[in-house]
């Protein structure tokens, strides 16, 4: 389980990350990443709507995303907020695919720069951005 310091809990924090964060689109998730002060804990939030499936399916997807975020915190991630919105296709995605998408968003170079010019730009529009095989559907 994520520590309280690693969770986004207030609606205002969710809103600010989604509105002002860099958007990273994947096949099964849309992530919003916003940089914070250097040295602060990484914080994660999850949005899994009823469009994803029944309560059992939604909780499975949420638990998988939380497990990946726990891995990320354990490996020393810090200085950003990440909100992950699960798309309906996330219900059929396996753990490694969701892991790849979340880690790709967490390592987005726009967070390190804190660039506002590239805000809301899709990573897939970058010509040299590596795309994992799971995302391409290969």
Automatic annotation (TrEMBL):
Gene it is expressed from: rnpA
Gene Ontology terms for molecular function: 3'-tRNA processing endoribonuclease activity; ribonuclease P activity; tRNA binding
Region (Disordered): 108-138
InterPro entries cross-referenced by the UniProt entry: Ribosomal_Su5_D2-typ_SF, Ribsml_uS5_D2-typ_fold_subgr, RNase_P, RNase_P_CS
Catalyzed reactions per annotation: Endonucleolytic cleavage of RNA, removing 5'-extranucleotides from tRNA precursor
Keyword tRNA processing carried by entry: yes
Keywords for the protein's UniProt record, in alphabetical order: Endonuclease, Hydrolase, Nuclease, RNA-binding, tRNA processing
Keyword Lipid metabolism: no
UniProt superkingdom: Bacteria
EC number per UniProt: 3.1.26.5
Pfam family, one: Ribonuclease_P
GO cellular-component term (any): ribonuclease P complex
Similarity comment text for this entry: Belongs to the RnpA family.
Protein source organism: Agromyces protaetiae
Subunit composition and interactions: Consists of a catalytic RNA component (M1 or rnpB) and a protein subunit.
Functional description taken from the UniProt entry: RNaseP catalyzes the removal of the 5'-leader sequence from pre-tRNA to produce the mature 5'-terminus. It can also cleave other RNA substrates such as 4.5S RNA. The protein component plays an auxiliary but essential role in vivo by binding to the 5'-leader sequence and broadening the substrate specificity of the ribozyme.
Gene Ontology biological-process annotations: tRNA 5'-leader removal
Protein name (Swiss-Prot/TrEMBL): Ribonuclease P protein component
């Amino acid at each position: 389980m994520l520590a309280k310091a690693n969770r986004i809990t207030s609606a205002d924090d969710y809103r600010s990350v989604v509105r002002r964060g860099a958007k990273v689109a994947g096949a099964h998730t849309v992530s919003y990443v916003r940089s914070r002060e250097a040295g602060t804990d990484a914080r994660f939030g999850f949005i899994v709507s009823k469009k994803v499936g029944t309560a059992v399916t939604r909780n499975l997807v949420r638990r998988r995303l939380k497990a990946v975020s726990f891995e990320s915190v354990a490996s020393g991630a810090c200085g950003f907020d990440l909100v992950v919105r699960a798309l309906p296709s996330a219900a059929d995605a396996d753990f490694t695919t969701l892991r790849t998408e979340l880690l790709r968003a967490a390592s987005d170079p726009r967070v390190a720069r804190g660039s506002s010019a590239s805000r809301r730009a899709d990573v897939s529009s970058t010509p040299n951005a590596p795309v994992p095989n799971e995302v391409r559907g290969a």
